[in-house]
Amino acid sequence: MKKSKKAKLILPIIATFVPTLLFIPKVSAGSFGAEIFCTMREGGNDHESSWQAAYSYIKKQKGGLFKTSPKQAAGQIIETVVREKDKFSYCVEYLDQLHPDRKLQLENNRKEKKRKKEEFLQEKNSKDYSEETFDRYSY
Questions:
Q1: What value, to the nearest 5°, has the Cα angle with vertex 81 and ends 26 and 93?
Q2: 54: closest CA among 37, 69, 70, 68?
Q3: What is the pLDDT of residues 96-111, one digit of tens each?
Q4: Distance, CA of 49 to CA of 135 (rounded, Å)
Q5: Looking at residues 75-92, what average pLDDT do you find?
Q6: Any idea where the domains of the chain sit in the sequence?
Q7: Is 40 within 8 Å of 50 (Cβ atoms)?
Q8: Nearest Cα to 55, choosing from 97, 19, 88?
Q9: Taking residues 62-91, what's their average pLDDT?
Q10: Is 77 helix (H, G, I), strand (E, B) or coil?
């Protein structure tokens, strides 16, 4: 009888606190991540450093079993800025850099791969043919 009474008390307590622990940090992490990103951008920092600072904070604060992807973190920042547009009105102009043009990204990736391949081939050719020449008639 005592065990069932304790189980009946523990179950509502767990049901109350577990959702709170799972969902509240995510919301506040995204909100503060947006604050970090927007404040750094407004302060004159470049996109990459502002993004890395906000993303690392969101990843660290989220916790849980699954990691936050960069796409999810960017979505959280955009969602927060749009939801609280009065607070982050100065930050709207920076949001386009969180989701850059995918075609442009693919093209840049292809160019980078091609450049690396060319460098590799040049390096390989330079190793094959050394600067030193041999005179086949010198003994």
A1: 140
A2: 37
A3: 888 766 677 778 889 9
A4: 56
A5: 89
A6: 2-98, 100-129
A7: yes
A8: 97
A9: 86
A10: helix
